Amino acid sequence: MSNQKPAILLIGHGSRDDEAVTEFNQLAENFKQRFPERMVTTGFLEFARPTISDAVEKLIEQGVKNVHAVPGMLMTGTHTKRDIPNELNKLKLKHGIRIEYGAELGIDPKMLQAARARIEEAEASINDYEAAQDRRHTMLVVVGRGARDPDANANISKITRYLDESMDFGWAATAYSGTADPLVPAVLERIKSLGVKRVIIFPYLLFTGRLAKRIYQTSDAFAVANPDIQVVNASYLSAHEKVIDTFVERESQITTAAARHKEHPA
Fold first, then answer.
1. Tens digit of pLDDT at every position of the chain (266 positions)
2. Smallest Cα–Cα separation from 120: which of 207, 232, 231?
């Protein structure tokens, strides 16, 4: 394998949940298949190994001097703005290599297509359900991670608005798994007064883990307590092809930015 092109470092947040780490590694394998001529590795910010430092040092051992780092994060926030850049800057100074940093996935048409596909998969599991008619009697709840960064929380609300308007549900609401309000239990309690026949819970998360499992536990408990309301759990995003497409685009944007810089040096 040639090292002429920059190696790619796909950065995961990391999790104490082994299933979440396994799912990230599976997504990374799918991502690697798009770059058969490139050296691609993974590193985690916390809670899992290899760490970002471990991954970079392994690349250096293999002769790499130029790395494109792509964050596996849905939204901008403390990790993408501070934690990851700080770690990469330390590694650049320590090892004297070039590391160029990409953007988070963000609100992207491809990510919205993946989100819609997950919701449609959930709808396909409902007996005697016709989307054109039954969505009018269905509530969509989009659940974000929740953050102290208002930009990240606002972006989940934008995603809810897009999905609601493009899919024409009777009702739609945004909830958060923690840190930000409203939390999932509060949103579910509110829908009792709306006359909703059915609610679809869609966690806007990349992988399973404590957050996703807590969301599903909450929705399952609500279903048991409210048998007159049909509760349908949609899958989180996972390694949907459109998610992989977005990661690939974020890598290509690093290359494009580098090319523009060479053409128009400061």
1. 444 799 999 999 999 999 999 999 999 999 999 999 999 999 999 999 999 999 999 999 999 999 999 999 999 888 999 999 999 999 999 999 999 999 999 999 999 999 999 999 999 999 999 999 999 999 999 999 998 888 889 999 999 999 999 999 999 999 999 989 999 999 999 998 898 999 999 999 999 999 999 999 999 999 999 999 999 999 999 999 999 999 999 999 998 875 444 444 43
2. 232
Whether omega before 50 lies within 30 degrees of 0, making that bond cis, reads yes
CA angle 91, 72, 94 (to 5 degrees): 0
For residues 82 and 260, give the distance between their C-alpha atoms in angstroms, rounded to a whole number: 25
Cβ atoms of residues 94 and 232 within 8 Å: no
Place of tokens 């404590």: 210
Q: What single DSSP character describes residue 234?
A: P
Structure tokens at 120: 């449609």
Angle at 187 between CA 142 and CA 181, to 5 degrees: 80
Catalytic-residue membership of 79: no
How far is residue 244's CA from residue 238's CA, in Å, rounded to a whole number? 9
Select which of 13, 68, 79, 240 is catalytic: 13
Give the CA distances from residue 218 to residues 42, 172, 192, in Å, rounded to whole numbers and listed in that order: 32, 18, 15
For 26, 136, 195, the CA distances from 165, given in Å and listed in that order, are: 32, 12, 20
